[in-house]
Structures are given as structure tokens and as C-alpha cells.
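hiii so my PI (J.) wants the whole complex modelled not just the main chain, which honestly fair. so below is everything: two entries, each one labled with what it is. i double checked the lines twice but i was tired so who knows lol
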Amino acid sequence: MINDAPVKLGEPALRWSARAHSIAEIESELARIWASQDLTTSMDGEPGRHISARTSVMNLVVVAGRPEIAERCAATIQALTGRHPSRTIVIGSADPDGPSWLDARVEAHCVLPREDAPETCAETIHVKCGGESGAHLAAIATPLIIHDLPVTVWWPGEPPLTSQAAQDLFATADRLVVDGSTWSGDGLARLRDLANLQESSRLAISDFALVRQSRWREAIASIFDDTDFLPYLRSIRRIAVTYGTHDETCAPGSANLVKPLYHVGWLASRLGLSVVKPLAPVVSHGSASSTTSTTRPGPARPASGRPIVGRGLAATLTDGRADVAVVARPVVSVMPSGTTLRVELLADRRGSELRADVTAEAETVHVRVWQDGVEAWDRSFRAPRRTDVDLLAEAIEAGRRDPVAVGALRSAAALVGDGMP
Amino acid sequence: MKDLRLAREGRKASRARPVENVLREGLRLERVPDPSVLVLFGGTGDLAHRKVVPALYQLWRTNLLPHEFVLLAIGRRPYDDESFRRDIRASLDQFSRVLPIEDDAWRSFAERICYQHLDFADPAGFDDLASRLDALDKERGTRGNRLYYLATQPSQFAEIAGQLGRAGLDHELHDGGWRRIVIEKPFGHDSESARRLNREVGKVFRESQVYRIDHYLGKETVRNLLVFRFGNGIFEPLWNRRYVDNVQITVAESIGIESRGAFYEETGASRDVLQNHLLQLVSLVAMEPPARFEADALRDEKVKVLRAISTASGDAGGDVVRGQYGPGWVAATQVPGYRQEREVDAASETETFVAARLMIDDWRWSGVPFYVRTGKRLPKRATEIAIQYREVPHRLFKDEGVEPDANLLAIRIQPDEGIMLRFGAKVPGLGLDVRSVTMDFTYGSAFSVDSPDAYETLILDALQGDASLFTRADEVEEAWSIVDPIVDGWADAAAPDFPNYDAGSWGPAAADELLAREGRRWRRI
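here's the output for the full assembly
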């Protein structure tokens, strides 16, 4: 079906749609789209604008466990058509115990970037598989991939990272995009699997949970742009991350810990810290500050919720000269479970103390710094919430492996160790 | 005093060299500049309203300015903060790159706009300015970091710099904040005036504090030129005299002189475009790879190119052609000749077109002519760099149909930014006909996102202390040393037969002859 309806600048328009029931039929439909001599459209009633040939800068394979995820992902990708035209293959499966079948919808979406330019078009293939064929993701995606273009696999939800089906699909891919903050439980077992995948393959990994924290990282890094504070950077002795939970009991697995751990992982990797003691539950002695680690309380601080005495996790890192205490502390909060509320750094250099307190509030990250108990810095960074479109665009634009992401994931997984969860 | 002296020399007083901020490594987000005040001299002027403030609004809207930011506009007109904000809003509605203006972004941006009435000749006014800046530091948390942006007449640059120095507004150590000054081109009108300006500004500010802005260097395609050359492995080996026959750089404008008759009469195409935009493009094309992607490493390499350009004088040797447009037709509109423009002498000898054949006497480019041209009232607006490769050493297909043209790499800077590579291909069929075909990369199709305006790029760089895309004093002086002999030579020569090209044509016939005598021609654009 060809759609030659008028277009609006910058808005994706569906130009072609067809059904197919096999990979061969899909390939045939893809060829027909661009062989069509009638693929012209009109704008403001003037006929005859030629639609440009396919423009693709990458292949994007989306594994959508549920139909609503597939719809949400497709909408996100359409919004990126102009910026990152891709051949997109959205794979969903159903009725795994029934007979094998395949039902596909082949679409071409086009965007008019400027009035004097031809349209930029990209293909989306929605594939739904039943029975055994749905378990062989690589067998569906591989023949549909445009060769010589990079392949990104976006796997929202709970990717079975160690399964054979996933491994086969990853073997054809250059990048894997996940969102660790949506994983069930504390998410740490899957985080470890993700780190193992990173070490054992050439995949570049983008985790929305880590990408979302970029403004936090900018805020924290900015503290040490100040030459008065820079000498303290190599003398950090404590890193504390406070995160939100909805569970008053803070039972294990009640909050996703991926985002809090990424903060520590990023700092540890940049500062070259290694793990002495991996994360373990704090041993409570009836006091909020009694943990397995030695901590130095800072000035009284306003909290976003009620602290839960004796809860949380603690670990010990080292820079080779001294230990660095790590604390991940839950606070009951109305924010989504696992959301970072505060990052605190304490540095001690030749008897002089620097304490940094980084908090998020609405669309702002706020940084305050005390030097020997005297407030020395107070700065806000604007940090508007980012949509899936922004996050996916940033993940795609990262190119090859991002050393910051590699280091943060590796260090976060090292903190989990073998004993967690 | 010792601290102050060492600071002026760009050295710290007694601190050991600080360790590196390793947390910065690999951060992909654009770094947010330090809290700061941008002090905009000429805040009521055309440049401020059309370019500088819209760029600042765009940076603010996209979260690239610090939360603790103040725009303090300086002017002679009797505004207060509120009335100035109303004027700025009206200008944004007209000149912003992204419309409509977002109300929320505007409200928060407007809160950060202040106005100060000031006569540049009045020392007491600068003392008031110092007090106002100190007060803003306290109220707004801007910490003494100041970017002085001189969007004024060039004749006022030295005076303002001097007054800033007299009021102590250049001192970086007195309260810990940095101080930088941005100067808009033209940087002088010849070598002597450029040296004088550099000297006057240098009495107050160290060279590392001075940011000379040539907006061409902030254009996306010009920045991409560095990526194209030094980020790809396949082009640089072919970027030398062995493979390149000639290089052609065109900066063509279809417009005339608009309402700038008086200015243009004093300037002409050589000073307006050749001395800066064209020679900047020549140096970016011809420079050696810098050791590091750092401001001084880049600028060192550019200066080496300028020093290696052999200079012509006037029309001598036929290596320089000047022209002036007469009446004609441009874009289906009849337009007057230059001498009929407002504020232009009816017998004016000012050139509105200049073409030159430049030779770069270095190992890489020896014997390769760089043909450059710029002009007003040419058929279309286009800026382009064309690398014309040599013919194949042996014509294998000379008996088989049409021989393809030699390979060509064209880098389009404006409009329709992109890169085109021309090569020969076999025409489908039983014969062996060969035709030239092109591989075309267009920014607009590959990346359907708006590129930032050059001013956004450059202002953000200045706030972050990155001088890579700004012109250094010695670059300016070297460029003048190329242009001065040309202009001086014209002054001594017989009056040209102006006008010598029709508006809407590609310039005087002598510009074509410049290439034709060597068996070449200008690339058709």
C-alpha cells in the first residue's frame, strides 16, 4: 500500500505498508518499496515530490516481550527517523508451545527534513512469531539486516542475557541497549550477567540507567574542576548513595539497586579503586551510622524521606593507599523505587576535610561542598527528565564502546561480587 | 604583587601543578561552563540582537549555560533591566533560530538579563560597572568569572580594553574568578593597525585571555573539515602535491553591500573576506596535523601555513584579480551596480570581488596552486572548498567513449552543507563508456538535526575557555602581511576599469583567465 498523503516538516509519515508471512516475503516487500516508480507524494497540493531512496545508518533490532512494549518502542524509533534513519526489526513472540508461524508488517516511514529536500525514509519490520520459530531470534533478524551497517539490539524489559537465543542474537550485534533500572528485584544478578557479557564479547553496552545519570556525573565532576578542591580527588574516603524505596521493611530485593551502584561504579572506575570487600548488608547495632564501614557523619542534612535505621549495604574499596567506605542507603520515598536521591563524598587530605553533597530535585541537580566544615560551594545544574527518545539517541550516538560505561559497569559488577544478592 | 605579576604572565604563584580531574574523562555531555557573567558591550546594537543574544537564549534553552549565569548588557541608551528585556524579547521573536520562543525558557532566561548604562569614555562608569559586577557575584553566585564581549565598533575595542584594565576588571586573582575578552572581527584594517590593536589589548589582557571571533570558524562544516581530514584514514594520504592538482576555495555572495556602503568603501572584498574567512579556510585545508587537539597546537599549524604563503603585490604577476560589479540581474531581480549603491562614491575604486592564486611554499603543497575567490552580487550564495585531483597517469579508456573528469572532492560549507566525491564509473551496457558520477553526503539528509549556529558554538567555547576556534594575534598579523602588499600594490597601480563584471555573473573575465592560462577553470558551482 502506498500512501501519498501530504507531509508535515519533521514529522514521520507512513509511506508504505505491506503484510508478509515469511522471511522471503519480507525481503520481497522490502525490494518492492524502493523499486516502485510511483513513490511520489505531494505537499500543499503540489504533486510530484520524489521520495528519496532508503536512508539507513544502522540496523536496529528490538526484542519486545509484550505487544505494548513493541508499540512503545516503535513510537520511540519513529521519532528518531529523521535523526537516525534505521532499518528497524521489531520482534515479538507468542504461543511458544504452538506450531511455528510468522506474521510481519513491512512499513516505510519518511520525514521531510526541509522544504527543499527530498524525504528521508527508513523501514520498520514488525515480526511476530509463534511456536519454535519465536525462540530463534537470530534466525529472524540476521537475514533482514542490511549488511555493512552496524547492528544495535534494543532489549527492553528483562533480557535473558545468558540464554542461547540471546547469545546467538548478540553474536550478530555491535551494541546492546538495555534499561537496568526496570529489572525486577534488586537487579544485581542481571547486572553481573551484563558485565560478564561485556567482558566475554565485543558488544558495546548502553544501559539507560547509566545514561540517565549523565547530569549527575557532570555535576560531580564539576566539583573537581575547581582547583581548590581538585587535590582532594585522590583522597576520597567515603562514598554514600541514598536511594528511594517504597518498602518500609527494606527487604532484600525490594528496590532496584542498579542506578545507585552505577554511581559508585563510575567513581570507582575513574579513580582506579578496587574492591576489598564487596557489598554486604549493613550490620545494624541500633544506630543509623553503625555499619560495617567506618563513616564520618557530615553536618545535619535535610532528607527526602525517613531514614531506616540499620538498613542498606556497605562495601570497602581501596586506592592502594587507604580504604574507601561505600554505603548504599535506602530511604522511603515517593520517587520511583531505586531512584538516586543523594550522593555524598567525603575526602580527607592531610587532616583537611572536603564533603560534597549532590542531590536531585525536580529538574535540577544541586551540589554543595564544605571544606573543613565551612560551606565553600553551592551550585545547581539543570537536568530535565529525558525521554526514551533522548536516551536511545544518545545510546546510538555513542559509537564504539564508551570507556566510561565500560568502567562503570565493570566496577559496579565487581562491587556486587559473588555473594550478592 | 608577585602573585599578580605571575598571574599576568600566565603562571601560578606558588601552587604545585594540580592533578588531573579524572572524573572529566570520557564525559559525553557538553560541559556546563562555570558560573559567570557575560558582559556584552554594544548590548543595544545589531550584532547583539541578531546574533549574540539569540545564541545565548538557545544555549540557555538547551541547558548549556550554568544555572548561575547573568547577561549584563552595556549600552549608552537609557534602558532599565525591564525595558531592555522587552526589547530583547522582540528581537528573539524575530531572530531566534528556533521559534516560537518557549515561555518557560524565556522567563528563566529573562531573569538573568540585566542592563547597565555606560559611556565608554567615562572612567567613573567603569568603576560603577565594577561595583555592579561585584554585587551580581554576591546576589547571583557568579563567582567573579567574567566574559567581556565587545560587540561594538572596532574603533572602540582598545578604549574599552583600556578602561577595563584601569578599573581592575581584568585581574584574575583578586577574587579567584577568570576574566576573558571576546573581540569581533575586523581585527584592524592592515598590519599596522592590527599590531596596534593587539598591543593595546595586550597591555591589559594576556593573549590566553583574548578570544578573537571569526564566526566562520564556528560553522559546523568548517569544524567538520578537521574531523574529515584527521578523523579518517583514507583522505590524508591523498592530501598533498603528489595527488592534488589544485585547490579552489570560493566564498560567493549573491547579496550586495546592503546598508553598509560607508563601511564597505573603507574595506572592500580583500579586507572583508580574503584576510579572514578565505585565509582561515586556506590554512585549515593546508595545515599539517597538529600533535594534539588543543588550541595552541592547532593555531601553531595554521600560522605555519600563513607564513608559507608567498605574497603577491597588487595585480603584479597576474596572480590577483580585482573586480567591481555593475548593474545586472540576480535571482530574477534587477539590481544596481556598486557605484549606484547608497553611501558609495560614484567613482569608487573599491573592489567587490577578488580572486587570487596563492602558492604555499612547503613540502606538502609546493607547486599546487590554491585559487581563492570571493565577491558580492555573484549568481548564488555558496561557500565551497574543492580539492581537484590530478588526472590518472595513463588514460586507459581514451578510445572508449567520454573520458571521465579527474577526481574531485568538494566540501560545501554553505548552503546545503556536505561533501561530494566525483569519480569515474562504467555506463551500463555492452560498451565501455565511462562517465563521471558522484557520491554525495548531505548533512541535512544524514543528520536531520539543526546544526548549532556558529555563535552558539563559539560563545560556549569562550565560556569554557577553549580557544581552538578563535584567532590568535600572530595569525591575524600573518594574514594581514599577505593582504597588505596586495592592497598597497593596487594603491600604486593605475585605476582599474571598474565596473568590470555584471551583477549576477561569476566575476571579471580576468578571474577566469587566472586559471585558464594554466589550462584550468573554476569549478562550476
